[in-house]
TrEMBL record:
Organism classification: Bacteria, Bacillati, Bacillota, Bacilli, Bacillales
Keywords carried by this UniProt record: Cell membrane, Membrane, Transmembrane, Transmembrane helix
Biological source species: Jeotgalibacillus marinus
The keyword Transmembrane helix is annotated on this UniProt entry: yes
Subcellular location: Cell membrane
Name listed for the protein in its UniProt record: Wzz/FepE/Etk N-terminal domain-containing protein
Protein family per UniProt: Belongs to the CpsC/CapA family.
Length: 247
């Protein structure tokens, strides 16, 4: 006999476990807020832009093949920027505060599709340190690329990294984290509610008896309420007997 669950039973389960679902959701929201505001260190981002140009020449205009050659170089430049050749010198200029591996982890190099512009971003708990690392990395790269590419000087800075007075951290994002925690908490709470209902094998209603025994219900014994007090009933009986026998 296949068991079917109606929408009424589903909503009944949710209603019965609503308090637990709310508690689980509030716990998830509270944990997310505490972690976002008090545990995770805020990270600030500073970005600079590089332009990969054609090697300086006497030709006034660039043709399509020159631009395509520059676009192919961008992928190579992205790897060179995060290579030890560049980052070792950046680390030295920073006084060894950051190792090469640490710099590689906080520096992001990204190029727009079909564009000669390269974006270099740095994330750090101190926004001014992030800007300093970004600008130093670009400066070292401009110096070293000429030697690495055999005299090719085709990189220029479009916009150096600057920090504003009202700079906001890029991570964490408390509101987003709380919204995600809300959804996850509801999902977990609902899942636990249905799991508890599935594991609950106790018999509570006549329908449960019918499902377990697979037999029709012949009758139901109603619950008796407002029973008279036993002591009061006994005293009344003794009084009647005493009056009957002249006691």
């Amino acid at each position: 006999m296949e068991e079917t669950i109606s929408l009424k039973e589903l909503f009944g389960t949710l209603k019965k476990r609503m308090l637990m679902i709310i508690i689980v959701t509030l716990i998830a929201i509270s944990a997310s807020a505490i972690i976002s505001y008090y545990v995770i260190t805020p990270m600030y981002q500073a970005s600079t832009q590089l332009l990969v140009n054609q090697e300086q020449s006497d030709q006034p205009n660039l043709n399509v093949s020159d631009i395509q050659a520059n676009l192919q170089l961008i992928s190579t430049y992205n790897d060179i920027i995060k290579s030890p050749v560049i980052l070792d010198k950046v680390s030295e200029q920073l006084g060894g505060t950051y190792t090469t591996s640490q710099l590689k982890g906080i520096i992001t190099v990204q190029a727009e599709r079909d564009s000669q512009v390269v974006n270099l971003s740095v994330q750090d708990p101190d926004p001014y340190v992030a800007a300093d690392i970004a600008n130093k990395t670009v400066a070292v790269f401009q110096e070293e690329i000429v030697e690495l590419m055999n005299g090719v000087d085709n990189v220029s800075v479009l916009a150096p990294a600057v920090i504003s007075s009202d700079q906001s951290p890029v991570s964490p994002q408390p509101l987003l984290n709380i919204a995600i925690a809300l959804v996850v908490g509801l999902m977990v709470g609902v899942g636990i509610a249905f799991l508890l209902e599935y594991l609950d094998n106790t018999i509570k209603t006549e329908q449960d008896v019918e499902k377990v025994l697979d037999l029709p219900i012949l009758g139901v014994v109603g619950q008796i309420t407002n029973l008279p007090d036993k002591n009061l009933t006994g005293s009344r009986t003794m009084k009647v007997r005493s009056e009957r026998y002249g006691g």
